[in-house]
Prior knowledge:
Mean pLDDT: 97
Bound molecules: 3-[O-phosphonopyridoxyl]--amino-benzoic acid
Number of domains: 2
CATH superfamily of the largest domain: Type I PLP-dependent aspartate aminotransferase-like (Major domain)
Strand content: 15-25%
Low-confidence stretches: none
Radius of gyration: 22 Å
CATH architecture of the largest domain: 3-Layer(aba) Sandwich
Number of helices: 17
Structural class: alpha/beta
Amino acid sequence: MKPAIDTADIQAQDSAHFLHPFTDxxxxxxxxxxxxxxAEDIYVWDSEGRRVLDAMSGLWCVNVGYGRxxxxxxxxxxxxxxxxxxxxxxxxxxxxxxxxxxxASLAPDVGERSFKHVFYSSSGSESNDSNVRMVRRYWDxxxxxxxxxxxxxxxGYHGSTMAGASLGGMSGMHAQGDLxxxxxxxxxxxxxxxxxxxxxxxxxxxxxxAGWLEEKILELGADKVAAFIAExxxxxxGVIIPPSTYWPEIQRIVDKYGILLISDEVIxxxxxxxxxxxxxKFGYKPDLVTFAxxxxxxxxxxxxxxxxxxxxxxxxxxxxEFNHGYTYSGHPVACAVALANLDIMEREQLPQRVRDxxxxxxxxxxxxxxxxxxxxxAQTCGFVGGMVLVKNKQTRExxxxxxxxxxxxxxxxxxxGLIMRAVGDRMIIAPPLTMTHAQIDEMMALIVKCLDLTxxxxxxxxxxx
Length: 465
Ligand code: PXG
């Protein structure tokens, strides 16, 4: 049944009034935006009544799937009881307090480092701004104000505010914003397919890539470096999964120089990699953990930072006001929604499900993609997956980026009822953690169909020659 929505009318208003994020406005105005109107389980419907399998969980966030009534009920009840009150001026509210305690209980202890405290924001970007403020405050309180530099990674993503975009290593974002802001610098990413040397093992590459951090620290002077920030698995950069040797070596280096470690888990936490928090999967010990997105499964904006006791103890014991916070820090409705969402994840054991059941099944099905003539490499980690489209499988030769092969593939996905993202010529997925095996099969059949169509296009256009 076609919903009673006038698509052309919405598109005209959209073009006239709505400037979309990360969008070429002129181009979108010429095409008209696709209008999404409802969603259920793992599917989204547009205003023309077309059903799409959402293999991106919205934007890496709808981990419990769409249409969860108990989350909506939690929001309704909280809105009727206390829709808003601030957390400034020595005031708190029940959901924000309960959620902080809940997150502390879910975050695994890592030796002497444990997570007992939460600082709230409304997004991943804001949370990383808070990280910059907190890291600098920490070193100031310890009498080392010269420790200002934060090291991020090229092709890392940490948000779109001035600090978030600076911590990230997206050259296009830096170019438009006169970024990075001072005292933020970058090392290269652990992307074996692109940066590995011929004959080098993945393990050896992982050590070499982590070594870039030590080189950078020595170049800058260790006493000037405040922190290193990284995603456990790079998401927006194209699902870049580091070699097994990478994180242990990073840990060794940050420990050696006493540098704070920030694990940006905006994508990777809350079951995405088969654990509540991804540092547990890779076995490292961060001091600060950024979260957002799936803490509410995207039903309402909420973000924050888990503050480990190394930092929290200093901030608390040294005293003095921390001059930073947001109107919506600890928003009662957002926190009530998060509690209802985490209840679902716990009851349905979604992290375990990813680790023991659907994660391994997705990995097995993804392995089959390696036989496709267009796929140079395909990997999963928990419930994210990425593959690279190549011109020549044998030589690993990639396509000329100007051809936009990834966008061609994305176009076929859209046309065939599948949402899969293209990052350059990497095709990536991050589906809801509720998927059944049958739904994984349904998704894989669509992926193969769209790869076949893209391959046929590449053949007919002579791009494979
Ligand atoms: N850190 C990480 C690791 C992220 O993935 C942010 C911070 C910023 O979060 P907010 O809530 O401020 O957007 C993100 C967000 C993409 C895409 O194209 C990814 C994100 C956002 C927008 C687009 O894959 N991740």
